């Protein structure tokens, strides 16, 4: 068989890819089912939350997913050496998508808490930290969490903020399918405030426009927690591979640079802390 320069280049390229995959997915016996699937089809399906904010939205011109979550999902797939399939998810359905196998991983503004950790797996190194804040009309008189007692508050179905709002602050919770529906209900007067991730609400306040009459007056965030990449329970090999990638993001400063490029403010101190911590490792 004739062995050409073109074929030698092709073999060499395949060997390089194989070596990259071996570094990310070391051979330690049979890998977990998700890792096997990712490797065999050379593609990872990642669920990303698209709520219209800086962390996930649709470009009206290209119809492509843009923002923090899609950027991280694409970078994660690239660093794993595979293609990516981005799957838009909503707050109320993201966990079901993962458990049912519709996605392999979740990068969906889903913060770490004990309840989620009971039923799902996750890469332990966080890629962000975020808490909840309240959006309300400027004339509402709301200035602290305690002011919500006895008042109707809009949240997304499945929101981790619902429990503390109800049990600690006495708010009357009204759940909606998505954050967009919750914010629409706030505009329609169905609640005195909408409580969501600060990363969703703060950009609305900064941009003004249709939200010029609203503000986020409560400075302390509710349930500040780490944002992590979620997997199904027990997928230790997938978790290890993903965590190595996230640590490299911190080590190289890529997350800090991406936050700056996307104009996400204020800067998240956790990114600088982990960059300093991991840079020398």
Short description:
With 281 residues, this protein is of the alpha/beta class. The protein has helices spanning 5-24, 33-41, 68-80, 94-99, 114-119, 162-167, 179-187, 198-207, 236-252, 254-261, 269-279, and strands at 43-49, 57-58, 65-66, 83-89, 105-107, 120-122, 128-137, 152-156, 172-176, 193-197, 214-215, 222-227, 230-232.
Name its key features:
13 strands; 281 residues; D-Maltodextrin-Binding Protein, domain 2; 21% strand; three-stranded parallel β-sheet; single chain; alpha/beta; globular; 11 helices; 2 domains
Overview of this protein structure:
The chain is of the alpha/beta class and 281 residues long. It folds into two domains: 28-127 and 228-279, D-Maltodextrin-Binding Protein, domain 2; 131-224, 3-Layer(aba) Sandwich (D-Maltodextrin-Binding Protein, domain 2), CATH 3.40.190.10. 41% of the residues lie in helices and 21% in strands. The protein contains eleven helices and 13 strands. The protein has helices spanning 5-24, 33-41, 68-80, 94-99, 114-119, 162-167, 179-187, 198-207, 236-252, 254-261, 269-279, and strands at residues 43-49, 57-58, 65-66, 83-89, 105-107, 120-122, 128-137, 152-156, 172-176, 193-197, 214-215, 222-227, 230-232. The strands form four sheets. Strands 7, 8, 9, 10, 11 and 12 form a six-stranded mixed sheet that branches. Helix 9 packs across helix 11 (269-279).
């Amino acid at each position: 068989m004739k062995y050409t320069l073109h074929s030698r280049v092709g073999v060499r390229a395949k060997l390089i890819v194989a070596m990259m995959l071996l570094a990310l997915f070391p051979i330690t016996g049979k890998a977990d089912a998700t890792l096997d699937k990712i490797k065999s089809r050379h593609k990872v399906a990642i669920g990303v939350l698209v709520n219209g904010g800086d962390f996930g939205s649709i470009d009206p011109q290209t119809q492509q997913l843009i923002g923090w979550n899609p950027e991280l999902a694409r970078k994660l797939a690239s660093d794993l050496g595979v293609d990516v399939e981005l799957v838009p998810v909503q707050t109320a359905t993201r966990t079901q998508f993962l458990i049912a196998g519709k996605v392999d991983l979740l990068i969906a503004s889903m913060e770490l808490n004990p309840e989620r950790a009971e039923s799902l797996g996750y890469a332990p190194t966080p890629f962000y930290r975020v808490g909840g804040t309240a959006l309300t009309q400027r004339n509402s008189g709301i200035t602290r969490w305690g002011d919500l007692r006895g008042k109707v508050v809009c949240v997304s179905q499945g929101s981790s903020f619902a429990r503390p709002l109800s049990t600690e602050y006495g708010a009357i919770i009204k759940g909606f399918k998505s954050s967009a529906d919750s914010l629409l209900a706030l505009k329609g007067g169905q609640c005195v405030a909408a409580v969501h991730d600060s990363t969703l609400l703060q950009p609305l306040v900064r941009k003004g426009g249709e939200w010029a009459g609203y503000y986020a007056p409560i400075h302390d965030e509710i349930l500040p927690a780490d944002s992590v990449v979620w997997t199904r329970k027990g997928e230790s090999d997938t978790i290890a591979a993903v965590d190595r990638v996230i640590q490299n993001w911190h080590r190289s400063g890529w997350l800090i640079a991406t936050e700056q490029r996307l104009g996400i403010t204020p800067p998240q101190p956790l990114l600088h802390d982990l960059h300093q911590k991991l840079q020398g490792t």
